[in-house]
Amino acid sequence: MTTTIEPLEDQLTADFYAYEALLPDEERKILLKARALMRDEIKPLVNDNWAKGEFPRELITLFRESGLAGLSYEGYGEHRPAVSNLLSGVLAMEMTRTDASVATFFGVHNGLAMYSVHSGGDQEQRDRWLPAMAAMDKIGAFAMTEPLGGSDVAGGMRTTARREGDTWVLNGAKKWIGNATFADYVVVWARDVDDNHVKGFVVEKGTPGFEPAKIEGKTAFRIVENAEITLTDVRVPEANRLQNINSFRDVAEILRATRAGVAWQALGVMAGAYELALDYARERQQFGRPIGGFQLVQDLLVKSLGNITASWGMLVQLARLQDAGIFRDEHSALAKAFVTSRMREVVAWSREIFGGNGILLDHDIARFFADAEAIYSFEGTREMNTLIVGKAITGQSAFV
């Protein structure tokens, strides 16, 4: 079977092999709408708010008006049939290509929080929460990581849930929770003291005992409002317990999909950094000519483009595996480990092309360089994802 790929006039500079052309026309229109939103409405807000470490609340209005939330969930959002996993991934890439913080705000809401409800909730819960979340009238957050538990949170979760009749009482702490300072619904994960299994609870804004505090002093993702949350006798009705989550194995189903989304974000960071460096190399004059005409600069650009193109190919096939229903933990783990490692190389090479100007926020590249470190670390470190893949291919667990 032969697939015809038509050239695209508005194709990304970083999409050297025209992967974007694999999207059907209807889905590509959605992508182009997102591209225009990020370029025309959101990019002008980014650097000032990144410098201040503040989340501009007008972003919520801009995304609400765009209708981009909820596209992955059939029956919710403006696009009633669910869009392909390829489009979902490319949208994550597109947003991150402009700014990783903004993309993470959207990904936490549209991915982690909404997917937790969609996958972990029953039909009544989906119908109760998802329409408002798809419309972005209500914003979601996802609270799993703890002050003393990152990579080992599956077995070492300290936040507890104790049932009292039709109410659950939550106690503990969470850390690095994006959107939590202003979210309407926070999906909190806690260990049931009776059966020792992890369960999910939707804690609504204003619930007594739920105290989020914004984390200050970050050197990456400065627009994201990450919070440290203290839960003190937080009472949640049984109706707010996600009914299809009975153990951490069920939670892993959610993380499998969201980890793939982080790999797409890493591609977006690479694409954005490379395009900035390419534009700068064409314009910056040294020794009487653009620096893009020097061999060493071209070497950095071509190595960057190679990393980007290889990552595109891996992620496109990953999306196909998702659409085919044969997507496994090790597939997303390999993508996250590989693409984020390539991302680190590309942002370093891109910043290098800028020389001293590369540390100035005005040139944007410094923001990409800093934000890449956050993407490299969350949703499973490279080491943890390596062990997931290693176990799958050898049949031997190397986890301690």
TrEMBL record:
GO BP term, example: fatty acid beta-oxidation
MF GO annotations: flavin adenine dinucleotide binding; glutaryl-CoA dehydrogenase activity
Residue ranges annotated for the Acyl-CoA dehydrogenase/oxidase N-terminal domain, each copy included: 25-136
Keyword entries, A-Z: FAD, Flavoprotein, Oxidoreductase
A Pfam family recorded for this sequence: Acyl-CoA_dh_M
SUPFAM superfamilies: Acyl-CoA dehydrogenase C-terminal domain-like (SSF47203), Acyl-CoA dehydrogenase NM domain-like (SSF56645)
Residue intervals passing through the bilayer: none
Cofactor(s) this protein cannot do without: FAD
Domain spans labelled Acyl-CoA oxidase/dehydrogenase middle: 141-234
EC number: 1.3.8.6
Enzyme class at the top of the EC tree: oxidoreductase
Keyword Oxidoreductase carried by entry: yes
This protein's record includes keyword Oxidoreductase: yes
Similarity annotation: Belongs to the acyl-CoA dehydrogenase family.
Protein name, UniProt field: Glutaryl-CoA dehydrogenase
Organism: Streptomyces caelestis
Lineage: Bacteria, Bacillati, Actinomycetota, Actinomycetes, Kitasatosporales
